[in-house]
Structures are given as C-alpha cells and as structure tokens.
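re: that chain from earlier
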Amino acid sequence: MFASGAYTDLALALRLDPAIREKISGIYLMGGAVYVPGNLTDFSASSDNVSAEWNVYIDPLAASEVFQSGVPIILVPLDATNQVLISMRNTAFWRAGGRESNFAADMYDMLLGHSYDNQFAVWDVMTAAIMVHPELCPTVPLHLDVVTEPGKFYGQTRVVDGGEPNLQVCLKPDILAIKRNLDNVFASGQ
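^ sequence. v structure.
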C-alpha cells in the first residue's frame, strides 16, 4: 500500500476497523524528517518550525496513530528524498512516454521554473518507485514518535533511542538507480 500526503484517512480507517491491520502487509509513506531539517519553509517563508515535514505536519495526530498502529511501515523521509533530485534533462527524457508522462514532465518543469539549471526532489514519486523496487533503498529499523503538542516542533518526527522499532526507514537511497528507474518508467509510458 502507498499513502501520499496527510495520513488522516489511513488513521481514520484504522480507528473505524482495527481488524484491517491484519490485511495490510505494509505501507510505504513519504514523510518526516529524521536527521535533517523539515521543509515547512519551502511552503511558508514565515514558518519558525524548521523540524517538521509537510505530510506529517498537516496532521501529526494521524501520523502518530499510524506510526503506533503496528502495521508494517516503510518510511521514506526527507533524509532520503532530498538526495534524489531531477532536472529538466530528466523530464525531457520522460516526454517519450506519451500523454501521462508529458503531464508529469509538465508538472515538474513548472516546479523547476522551466530552467535547466534548477533541480527538484521527487518526494512521492520516488517513494512509489521504492515501493515497487524495495532494493532501491535499504531500510533501518527505528522507533519514531511524532510531536503532537503545539509549538515550534509540532509535527516533528523524533527518534526514540532504545525504543522498539515501529518503522523501517529509508535513509540511503541508491540515487542513480532511482533516477534511472524513473526515467525508464516515464519514458516507456508504463
């Protein structure tokens, strides 16, 4: 299973029917910032919260519930996604894939400011690639909690040293293999 954005619906589903835990073999989530700063300042220059990542920040209670749910979770945080950057050289290659690939290229070109000099992280797309090909990023077991109290650390994912691992976390992605995978998938129109 792959979840993108806030984990609100997933947390609600687990609350409404806890038995679904047994039917979920694993969830791939893009979110959190384990050992690196968060990305809220990417979305709001006035944010004094430099610890939280957007997907967790917009509903930290849901993220906390999902992290503590007992469902096997593979987390791809900013630590990993910030390492895999694409440019318009990649999106130009993607355009061989047809309509859907052109749409993806158009979206990323917009985020790149239509400049060949810029690079941009492919957060959720990279996480989906890792879900299909887990070998693209080995994981390490960690226990992460989410700060749910209001304040400048609201939404931060924190490592609990000595805690029983509740997630498998991707920290060292195979950067070149992920970029090749995305190029091949988009260029082939798969």
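The chain has a mean pLDDT of 94.
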